[in-house]
Structures are given as C-alpha cells and as structure tokens.
Amino acid sequence: MRDEAREILAHYENMVEVEAKRLVRHQLERDMTRRYLETYLPSEGHVLEIGAATGEYTVWLAKRGYQVTAVDLSSSLIARCEQRLADAGATGLVSCFVADAQDLSAVPGQGFDAVLLMGPLYHLTHRENRLKALREAVGRLKPGGAFLSALISRLGIMGDLLRNTPAWIENQEQVRSILEKGHDPEDSEEGRFHGYFVAVDEIAALHEEAGLETTLIVGVEPAISADDASYNRLEGKQRQLWLDLFWELSREPSLLASSRHLLYIGKKQKPPADSELTCPLKPVQALDQVLD
C-alpha cells in the first residue's frame, strides 16, 4: 500500500500559496459552505477543524466568536494559517496543531461542540483509512454535536478535467479507474493530486458506520460544472439572488453527483438512555406463590 500521508504532504508543502488562493478561485464553494456552517453549527462553542489548510474557514469562524482548534497535516499550511489569523487579528480564539487526520493523539481536547473534516476524505483512497479518519474525528465530538465533512464527487470533476486536461480522456486506464474505483490506478506516478472521488451513494453509510446520524448531503457547486468565473464576477443583488438559487438547488438529489464538492452534514449519535439499556422487571411473586 502506498504511503498516502507522505504523498499528500508532499503535494501541499509545494502548493501553499496556490492553496491559500483556492477559495478565491472557487467562490461559490466558499459561499455555500459558509451558509451551511451558519445554518448547522451551534451559535457558539468550540469547533475542531481538521484539514484547516491555510485558514480560510478558521479565520471566518474565529471572527464569529467560535473557539477553534485548527489541525492540518502540513506544517507549511498551518504556518500560513497562523499568519492569516495574525493579519486578521483573530489569534486569541484559535489553537493550531500539525497532525494526521488518522491519528489525532497530538491534538488536545474532547467533547467539541462541532467537528469539521474539510479535506482528508478526498485524499484517502482506501476505505479503511477514510473510516479511521472519521472515527478519530467523531471520537472528539460530544454526543449530539454537529459534524460536517467535505468530499469531491466522482462525476463532478469531469468539467474540470475537460477544461484543464482534455488529454486525460486518452488514458483509458485512468478513466476507468476513476469511474469504477474513485482514484487513479495504484501504479500511477507520484506527484499528481492524490485524490479520492466519492460516489454519492456511499457517503451516508460510511459516516454512519463511524457513529453519525445523517442530516443532509448537499452539493456546494450545483449546476455550474467548472464555470467558476461566471459566479465570481457577480456583485450585489445579482450575486445574492444567484446564491439563494444555488442554495435551493444544492439539496436537489438529481444534481448532487454533478457538483464538484459535496458537504455531508450530520450529528454524533447519542448513547441510549438508561431506560433503553435496562430490561423491565416483572413483578416479584410472593415466596409462597413460587413454592406452591
């Protein structure tokens, strides 16, 4: 099995500034994700953000008064996150840590009010590793706490591939591997984006196996394919109206697979109440009735 963590780390260590500007390029993804965070996060509390990268959502959360524990595999991304927090005057509520999503032992804290898993699930190509990362995250969440994770759709990436790398279609081994397995062939060259592209119908079951109750699965870039530019240049009332329409379309089941990025929204299962764990006792018969 390939060393996924090493390949993912190598990718991001060389892409810090590109990653820092990613959500400037993909503004609909950013705006929709923020709206879902506003809707499903508690109004206050402590948020564990795994896959914080350069801190786009970290800063946004801190400015809204949340205490944030921000985690990323890349020390370079975390350093850029800390710089962004300092520039925004938002360092007081945030603690940053370098750790692998599959092993959070270096990250302090339990019983977080909400957990965000914003990237690891679309890099871990083996199901057991995705499940391990989910269980690590859910283990830090309080019962009933909000959980949101980001994923990339297997079919939603086709527009980007057509626009950016049209020659991809000539490598039919890669094409079939993406469509059937969700990732490049195991023997593909290192240095490429090490990604796992999910099928919509596998999302709920994976998260529920980790101890979550599913609330909603949405597409945060519905109906735009790879056309970020048209949304990015919108302003004022038009931008707000289009965002409102995309918010409505984001829950449309027939559009989910065509969105590049998907968002899972759920909550941690609560342990059964004591009454559910205890068998009801039958009335005890008098001793003389039993012996009679």
List the helices and strands and how they pair.
Layout: H1 4-13, H2 16-20, H3 22-25, H4 27-40, E1 46-50, H5 56-63, E2 67-72, H6 75-87, E3 94-98, E4 112-117, H7 127-139, E5 141-152, H8 158-164, H9 172-181, H10 203-209, E6 212-219, H11 228-232, H12 236-249, E7 261-268, H13 274-277, H14 287-291
Q: Could you name the CATH class?
A: Alpha Beta
The CATH architecture is 3-Layer(aba) Sandwich
Rg estimate, integer Å = 22 Å
Q: Give the integer mean of the pLDDT values.
A: 91
Largest sheet features: 7 strands, mixed
Task: Specify the number of helices.
Answer: 14
Tally of discrete structural domains: 1
Q: Pairing-aware structural class of the strands and helices?
A: alpha/beta
Distance between the termini: 70 Å
Strand content: 15-25%
At the fold tier of CATH, the topology name is Rossmann fold
Describe this structure in words.
The protein has 292 residues and is of the alpha/beta class. It has one domain: Rossmann fold (3-Layer(aba) Sandwich), CATH 3.40.50. Helices cover 41% and strands 17% of the residues. The protein is built from 14 helices and 7 strands. Helix 6 links the parallel strand 2 and strand 3. The C terminus is likely disordered.
Q: Keywords for this structure?
A:
292 residues, alpha/beta, Rossmann fold, 7-stranded mixed beta sheet, 7 strands, 41% helix, 17% strand, disordered C terminus
